[in-house]
Design a protein that fits this description.
Blueprint: E1 4-8, H1 13-25, E2 30-35, E3 55-59, H2 65-74, E4 79-82, H3 89-94, H4 97-122, E5 127-133, H5 158-177, E6 181-186, E7 189-190, H6 199-208, E8 213-216, E9 222-224, E10 226-227, H7 228-241, E11 247-250, E12 255-257, H8 258-275, H9 278-282, H10 287-290, E13 298-301, H11 316-322, H12 330-343, H13 345-349, H14 354-364
Parallel strand pairs: 1-2, 1-4, 2-3, 4-5, 5-6, 6-11, 7-10, 8-13
Antiparallel strand pairs: 9-12
Helix pairs in contact: 1-7, 2-4, 4-5, 6-8, 8-12
This protein binds nicotinamide-adenine-dinucleotide and thymidine-5'-diphosphate.
Thymidine-5'-diphosphate is lined by residues 89, 188, 198-199, 202, 214-216, 221, 223, 258, 304.
């Protein structure tokens, strides 16, 4: 059983949700978060955990093998859960370097540190869990069967190519050196603490700020959306019951076209404002929502280069072998998400800084 965890990238979106879930579900053992706190990392996402005796945070880079080795030894780590990555496709198109550095070189250095301490050192029982994405499998056409674990890799963006490379490294360190590894592969997550550069939080926040809701191309691209806490539960199950060297798809079988999601969020936001009068005072800028005309903010913009048309994941293996099933439906998850952003304005306001504005201007043109 995993006992002392090192969670890389635990101050990011999925990592923070995993850390909260693990801390609630496992009162025993310890957990160290290692995170470089890039623009996407936010200590406020871990706030409530800080100060707890079982939790510690280290600001540092996964490429720093010496630092990683010392944490593995000093904290008696038996399990690494590896989330740390550059994760945004659009940024990977503008500036791929950081994706190669962190996702490929960073994963390599982490694997080497783990091998040095666990295999050349004390030989303790261990697990390196790698968190991957369905984007490594490429793009599906309408009617194609879902991605299974045995799909060939066909990554199309610098992001997915760098993640595919890291998956290969993890596999090779198991096959060649005998490092105990597992890999989980998830589709698009949504939920609390997601940095507002990804579709769902951008739409929620732009509604509250009465800014355009940018839809790339025709808006009919399909993603298989998955509530982030269900992802955390899936990873937990793989850590507890997964078999060494195996790869597990985790998903909720929930395909939506982008434009349909954006329309739904507009409707949920108008509903939230009409049910709870406090939001009109709290978000006076949200004039289109207040007038019941949220959808007028929908704006079609230039498509993303090389935009993958469809992702859809087959999660039969984890259901049948480990007994996994998601708890949230899409309907309950998206309602919780809209409500979280409405109730946690301080969290998202704190990230709308100069660098966020620079990114929005660069990707969408000036957005004032
Ligand atoms: P994120 O961008 O929100 O967070 C990434 C975190 O990694 C940040 O806290 C950042 O500070 C940290 N980080 C970046 N470079 C680092 C480095 N060199 N050293 C240490 N820390 C570093 O990403 P996310 O959406 O939470 O994704 C986490 C993982 O899950 C990624 O590996 C991603 O590929 C995978 N994943 C994400 C999704 C999704 O929908 N978000 C879906 C499937 C898989
Ligand atoms: P995103 O959340 O960036 O995730 P990914 O590219 O990893 O799937 O994008 C989800 C979908 O939404 C994708 O098809 C691109 C599209 N999209 C928009 O239409 N507008 C936007 O402003 C963003 C960020 C994404």
């Amino acid at each position: 059983m995993p006992s002392n965890l090192l969670v890389t990238g635990g101050a990011g979106f999925v990592g923070a949700n995993f850390v909260h879930h693990w801390a609630r579900a496992h009162p025993e053992g310890s957990l160290v978060v290692l995170d470089a706190l890039t623009y996407a990392g936010n200590l406020a996402s871990l706030g409530a955990l800080e100060g707890g005796s079982r939790f510690s945070f280290v600001k540092g880079d996964i490429k720093d093998s010496e630092l990683v080795s010392s944490i593995l030894k000093e904290k008696n780590i038996d399990t690494i859960v590896h989330f740390a990555a550059e994760s945004h496709v659009d940024r990977s198109i503008y500036s791929p370097d950081a994706f190669i550095e962190t996702n490929i070189l960073g994963t390599f250095r982490l694997l080497e540190a783990a091998r040095g301490v666990w295999l050349k050192g004390d030989g303790r029982k261990h697990c390196f869990h790698h968190v991957s994405t369905d984007e490594v499998y490429g793009s599906l056409n309408p009617g194609d069967p879902f991605f299974t674990e045995s799909n060939t890799f066909s990554p199309n963006s610098p992001y997915s190519a760098s993640k595919a490379a890291s998956d290969h490294l993890v596999r090779a360190w198991h096959h060649t050196y005998g490092l105990e590894v597992t890999t989980s592969v998830s589709s698009n997550n949504f939920g609390p603490y997601q940095y507002p550069e990804k579709l769902i939080p951008i739409v929620i926040i732009n509604l509250l700020e009465n800014k355009p809701l940018p839809i790339y191309g025709d808006g009919k691209q399909i993603r298989d959306w998955f509530f982030v806490e269900d992802h955390a539960r899936g990873i937990e199950l793989v850590l507890e019951k997964g078999s060494g060297g195996e790869r597990y798809n985790i998903g909720g079988n929930n395909e939506w076209a982008n434009i349909d999601i954006v329309n739904l969020i507009c409707e949920l936001m108008e509903e939230a404002f009409s049910v709870n009068g406090k939001y009109k005072n709290q978000f006076p800028n949200a004039t289109s929502v207040i007038k019941g005309k949220a959808k007028t903010l929908i704006t079609y913009v230039k498509d993303r280069p090389g935009h993958d048309r469809r992702y859809a994941i087959d999660a039969t293996k984890i259901q049948q072998e480990l007994g996994y099933s998601p708890r949230e439906s899409f309907e309950t998850g998206i309602r919780k998400t809209v409500s979280w952003y409405l109730e946690n304005e301080a969290w998202w306001r704190s990230v709308l800084d100069g660098s966020y504005k620079d990114w929005m201007d660069r990707n969408y043109g000036v957005n004032d």
